[in-house]
Design goal:
The chain is 26% helix and 19% strand. With 373 residues, the chain is an alpha+beta fold. It folds into two domains: 231 residues, DD-peptidase/beta-lactamase superfamily (Beta-lactamase), CATH 3.40.710; 110 residues, 3-Layer(aba) Sandwich (Beta-lactamase), CATH 3.40.710.10. The longest helix has 15 residues. The radius of gyration is 20 Å and the shape is globular.
């Protein structure tokens, strides 16, 4: 990927520093359990983390740490950040809208729509279905490889797919489950082939615009900006009682991740998106059922399964939630889930969490959803 030529600033952030936690429309004391879980999560995530949660009538927030290590301030639910693989759910929704319109058949081979694209090096597009691509059962490699950038430093979907498919399959189609961002680059090209517009434009006009997600954007190639207020992103680590953070907010060219991970949003917008999806506002009831037909995720915690660009999470309080998680090298990790009865929870931290500690973001989400009436 192309890197920002400006060298990252090395900053030192003391673990002891903490910003006051506040809530919206509900006292923090009412959500002390989630605050405690979030505080524990921060120890392995940092430098800041926040939860925006609620139901159909009210929302609340808890936060810990700082949004900016250079000028400490609390995180807010309107801070824009890179949602990473939560982008995959937007991409899946557009493909399923095309299914509703009779333009795509979930069980048709991808070769029907993208002739010659998924072919060679052990791949056969006549044996990989659209459903398998959205479900991560296609066997397509998760290694993005080394795509060739255009002279301006941006990447084209066909080139990123070519680079990904230069790596061998994980397994024969339909015989296993293996996460793959390349799957969703292929899904993005499918959207472009069927709609005749860029995948970003299709996602914007079909999902982002109709839902009024004014703080959600699919970036144009070369656009690395975030709208103010935004959440800086960091990578780094711990040395004794100190965190050492590198600011990587604008360091990566987002067109390489495209329909697998390029979207920017906020906790508030993501909660609205996931609620709308679960409530059936974006696809037909029949297609929503297809979206939520899950397969096991090998190695995942008990109670998690994968649908079509969507994760099912069985909550400790007995309900089920639907959503996705996201990580980006720009220094953002996040998750958003919603339940059929209108509860929602969005989590973000301004660091790329490569290895979560003893407290995970799924535990934070579970606490927030189960702690909402």
């Amino acid at each position: 990927m192309s890197r920002n030529r400006v060298l990252p600033l090395l900053v030192v952030f003391a673990v002891a520093l903490a910003m006051p936690a506040t809530a919206q429309a509900a006292p923090v004391a009412d959500h002390a359990d989630t605050q405690a879980v979030l505080d524990r999560y921060l120890a392995g995530a940092g430098p800041g983390a926040a939860v925006h949660a609620g139901n159909r009538t009210h929302s609340w927030e808890v936060r810990t740490g700082t949004a900016d290590v250079n000028a400490p301030r609390p995180l807010t639910s309107d801070d824009q950040f890179r949602i990473g693989s939560q982008t995959k759910t937007f991409t899946a929704v557009v493909v399923l809208q095309l299914v509703d319109e009779g333009k795509v058949d979930l069980d048709a081979p991808i070769e029907r729509y993208l002739p010659g694209v998924v072919d060679g090096n052990g791949y056969d597009g006549t044996k990989i279905s659209v459903r398998q691509i959205l479900q991560h059962t296609s066997g397509i490699s998760n290694d993005l490889g080394k795509p060739q950038a255009d002279p301006d430093g941006t990447y084209r979907l066909r080139e990123t797919i070519r680079a990904g498919l230069a790596n061998p399959p994980q397994f024969p189609p339909g015989t296993g489950w293996g996460y793959s961002s390349v799957n969703f680059l292929v899904a993005g090209l499918l959207i472009e082939q069927i709609t005749g517009v860029s995948a970003g434009d299709a996602i914007t006009t079909r999902v982002i615009g109709p839902l009024g997600l004014t703080r959600t954007t699919y970036p144009r190639p070369g656009d690395r900006q975030l709208a103010t207020p935004y959440l800086p992103g960091y990578v780094g680590g711990r040395s004794g009682p100190f965190f050492f953070w590198f600011d990587r907010t604008f360091a990566w060219e987002l067109s390489q991740w495209a329909t697998a991970g390029a979207i920017a949003s906020t906790e508030r917008d993501m909660a609205a998106f996931m609620r709308a999806l679960v409530d059936g506002e974006l696809v037909s009831p029949t297609t929503l059922a297809q979206l939520r037909a899950t397969v096991p995720i090998p190695g995942a915690p008990a109670g998690m399964a994968y649908g079509l660009g969507l994760i099912r999470l069985d909550l400790s309080c007995g309900a089920q939630a639907w959503g996705h998680v996201g990580d980006t090298a720009t220094g953002h990790s996040s998750a958003t889930f919603a339940t059929d009865d209108g509860r929602h929870a969005a989590l973000v931290t301004n660091a790329f969490v490569q290895a979560e500690g003893t407290t995970t973001r799924i535990q934070v989400i579970d606490s927030a959803l189960c702690g909402t009436p």
